Amino acid sequence: MLLAKMVALRSGCNSRPSGAVIVKDKRILATGYNGPMPGAWHCTDRGPEYCFRREKGIPDIDKYNFCRATHAEANAIAQAARFGISVEGAELYCTLAPCYVCLKLIASAGIKAVYYEYDYESRDFERDRFWREAIREAGLSEFRQVRVSEETLASLSGILPYPTSKRRLKPTEFLSTFESGKTYTLPHPEALLNKLRYQAGLSDRLGEVSFNVLDPSDFEEEFSGEVIFPEPGETVPVEIEGFSGELTLISEGGLRLNFDRLTLGGLRKVLGMAASLARDYELQATPFLTLKIATLDLKEG
C-alpha cells in the first residue's frame, strides 16, 4: 500500500490523486496512477485547482464521460497487458476503492484480491450500494480496506529525505585481519570463521591468539571426540578431531578452551562442540566462549 501511495504522486488529477500496484508472490508486476492518455495534458498542468470536468460544468452523474483520467487500477492492468505480463491470481493494492468499471476489469483480468485504503464515497448513494453488491459477483477471495501502519510511516519519514542511501551503520574495514599475540571479540562463531577465511589468504598461521565469542547463535557443526562437561571452576581434558586441549567451566557460566595447536578445520569442530555444550547446558554467560590457541594453522583444513 505504501508503494501505491507513492505511485499516486505521479497522478495528473487535482481532485483525487490515486495509485495502484499489482503484486504476485511478493513481486511487483505493474503500477498505475490516474491520469490522461499517454502524451495528453494533465489537469495538474493547468494549475492546482483545475479540473476539466468542473470547468465544463459537468455534474457528478456524468463525470466518467468527461473525466480526462484513466483510473489507477485500469492503468496498472493496461501497463501489464502492454508488456505481456499476466496478472492472473495477483493482488491489487490501491489508494481508492475501485469503481464499478475498474472492478469489472479487475475480475476479468483474474486478479484475486483487492486491498484499498479509502472508500470511494461518490455522491450517488444508490450507485455506491450497487457497487458494493457487485463486489460479491467479482469472485474475489478478498476485498478489504487497509492502512499503512504508523510504524511504517515513521520509517518512511526517516528514509525519504535526502540522502536516502547514506550509510547508516558504522563502515567496515576493507579487510580486517588478526595479529598474533592479541585478543579479539567476535559476535558469534560464524563471524570468527569468516574473518579467518580471508586471513588465510594473507598469512600461514597465528600464534598465541585469543578469541572471545559472545554468543553461540545458531552455529552447528558435527564433531567427534571425548568431552566431559566440567563442574564450575573445574578444568578437564578434551580431544576433538585429534586435537588435544583443556576445557574449563568458569564461575560466570562461560566456557574456556585452551589448545596448543588447531587448524581451521579443527577450529570449526571445536566451535561446534562449544556451541553445542552452551545450548545443551543453557549457558547464559557473555562471552559464552573464551578460546586461546598457541598455534593456529591457517593453510591446513
From the alpha carbons, calculate the radius of gyration and give it in angstroms.
32 Å
Q: What structural class do the secondary elements suggest?
A: alpha/beta
How many domains, as an integer? 2
Alpha-carbon distance between the two ends: 51 Å
CATH superfamily of the largest domain: Cytidine Deaminase, domain 2
- Please identify the top-level CATH class of the largest domain: Alpha Beta
Number-wise, the strands total 12
Helix content: 25-40%
The DSSP helix count reads 9
Architecture of the largest domain, according to CATH? 3-Layer(aba) Sandwich
How would you classify the quaternary structure?
single chain
Enzyme class: hydrolase
Organism: Thermosulfurimonas dismutans
EC number: 3.5.4.12
Cofactor: Zn(2+)
Report on this structure.
- The protein is α/β, with parallel strands linked by helices and 301 residues long.
- It has 2 domains: 1-158, 3-Layer(aba) Sandwich (Cytidine Deaminase, domain 2), CATH 3.40.140; 189-297, no CATH class.
- It is 29% helix and 25% strand.
- The protein contains 9 helices and 12 strands.
- It has helices at 2-7, 52-55, 63-66, 72-82, 100-109, 125-137, 150-159, 189-199, 264-280; strands spanning 19-24, 27-33, 91-96, 113-118, 142-145, 183-186, 205-213, 225-226, 235-240, 243-249, 255-263, 289-297.
- α8 runs antiparallel to α9 (264-280).
- It is elongated, with a radius of gyration of 32 Å.
- Its EC number is 3.5.4.12.
